[in-house]
Amino acid sequence: MTSTTALTDNPVLEADRIIDDRRTRIIVCCGSGGVGKTTTAAAIGLRAAERGRQVCVLTVDPARRLAQSMGLTSLDNTPRLVEGVSEEPGGSMYAMMLDMKRTFDEIVEAHSDPARAEQILANPFYQALSSSFAGTQEYMAMEKLGQLRKSDEWDLIVVDTPPSRSALDFLDAPERLGRFLDGRLIKLLLTPAKATRPFTKVINAGFSVVTGTLTKILGAQVLRDAQTFVTAFDTMFGGFRERADATYKLLQAPGTSFLVVAAPEPDALREAAYFVERLDAERMPLAGLILNRVHRAPGTLSAPRSLAAAETLESAPNGSSETDSSQASADAVAAAALRLHAARMSLGERERRVASAFTSAHPAVPVMEVPALPEDVHDLAGLRTVGASLSGEPQ
Length: 395
Fold this sequence. Notes:
Layout: H1 15-20, E1 26-30, H2 37-49, E2 54-59, H3 65-69, E3 80-81, E4 92-97, H4 100-110, H5 114-121, H6 124-132, H7 136-151, E5 156-160, H8 173-181, H9 184-194, H10 200-218, H11 220-233, H12 237-252, E6 256-262, H13 266-281, E7 286-294, H14 303-315, H15 322-361, E8 367-371, H16 380-390
Parallel strand pairs: 1-5, 1-6, 2-4, 2-5, 6-7, 7-8
Antiparallel strand pairs: 3-4
Helix pairs in contact: 2-16, 4-7, 7-12, 8-12, 9-11, 10-11, 13-15, 14-15
């Protein structure tokens, strides 16, 4: 018999209640790396689809585990139908992986005329910005989420965020973008194009001094590329800010639920505490904590008693008869099993102590514990098992 004693006394997180509530349109899974966040997001998406929801799972995690677990050879910037999902309840599941640059290109193509779009896409400054500029991935994740939600093709979008604290960088995207677009360099690069006739000579004179300095630092070609990009891109700046702000408000809306995923380990739960506090500060709707890969102690025999019994068996005298030899072998197997049991009990107790640090600081946060599985999840059957655990079904 397996003990189902919970590690925490916190309220129980009811995943099915969130999934089944048709007012829930977005579920965001966040947490540090290596805690099973990608698998959790996929399991939630699959369970929701098999309970009648039209689901799209968006991952911005560079790992490919999500595609493999759903039987897809690859994921890209286009939602792909996941085969093998039960069609009886009428749901469906699509999955995609954010392509940061392609999303940026799509925005340019959608919000500018063909000639200007071609000019922007070919600009070296834009190509560098769209591929590697700090924060671009998080901002594009917000853009893609906004696009998916606006399309109204899916009634539930599950977002799997990047690992570690960068997972919440998308909350800063509107402000960061605003600082970039309102920054002095951008305004300076736009000055000649926006100058009115009476002041053109004065402004251009000052601009020549500044650009002369920038040319020495950046190089003439880089500066020309940046000026060309900013001038062509100027009409799109307002739209970027507006869409980012709209998506930020969407994340704060009642139809969004944030799930923090952690393992019962000190570093992971410290990160979880950071996420919970940050979400509270940003007034984001936190649904609860998923404590993943929990080792539940089987039975009631304590670790010390188990070790004592193992030592007693191991110290028993061995006879020379065949019966004695057979008994000695059985004692050795029993002693090994007792030591394994003791290790499992000790691990469970250690996880309980670690979890208490989080729960004592956040006693009102709902928690759902997901038992550790004997092997990694690599198919839909494994995702169904995780989904059942998330909903509190006995395993």
